[in-house]
Amino acid sequence: MSLTLAVLAALTAGYGLGRYKPLHRASDWANWQHYGKRPTGTRYWAVYTVLSAENIVWLLTHPVKGWDAWRHRHDPPPPKSPPLRFRTDHTTKETR
User: Fold this and answer.
1) Alpha carbons 27 and 49: distance in angstroms, whole number
2) Which residue spans within the chain are E strands per DSSP?
3) Distance in angstroms (rounded) separating the CA atoms of residues 18 and 24
4) pTM for the whole thing?
5) Which residues lie closer than 8 Å to 29 by C-beta, 6 or more apart?
6) Which CA distances in Å does 13 have to 9, 10, 20, 22?
7) pLDDT in tens, 14-32
8) Dist. CA 70–CA 49, nearest whole Å
9) What is the arithmetic mean of pLDDT over 72-88?
10) What number of helices (H) and strands (E) belong to the chain?
11) How far apart are CA 15 and CA 21, in angstroms?
12) Residue 87, CA distances (Å) to 14, 84, 90 in order
């Protein structure tokens, strides 16, 4: 009976955290602070702690993508495709 209650409590807590999304909210807050008015004092350290933690977790969970992005960060942009050409005559082969 106590195992059932423990499992039910864990599922309820997981559901509650999944709905509330505290890490997503913290990340959104840090991005709003970073790209809005520049934070000062304690907010500065809180913002950059959250953003650094987010980047470190991403690099730990996606090491190949992170390494590839690091290697190609200064690559030149790809060449542009040639411009489109439009026919100037409006006749078709059948009407010639």
Assistant:
1) 10
2) none
3) 10
4) 0.54
5) 50
6) 6, 5, 10, 13
7) 888 777 777 888 888 888 8
8) 21
9) 88
10) 4, 0
11) 10
12) 62, 10, 7
For the stretch 28-48, pLDDT in tens is 888 888 777 777 888 888 888
Closest by CA position to 69, among listed 79, 55, 86, 52? 55
DSSP state of 94: G
Token reading at 76? 């030149």
DSSP, residue by residue, the chain: -HHHHHHHHHHHHHHHHHHH-HHHHHHHHHHHHHHSSPP-THHHHHHHHHHHHHHHHHHHH-HHHHHHHHHTTTPPPPPPPPPP---S----GGG-
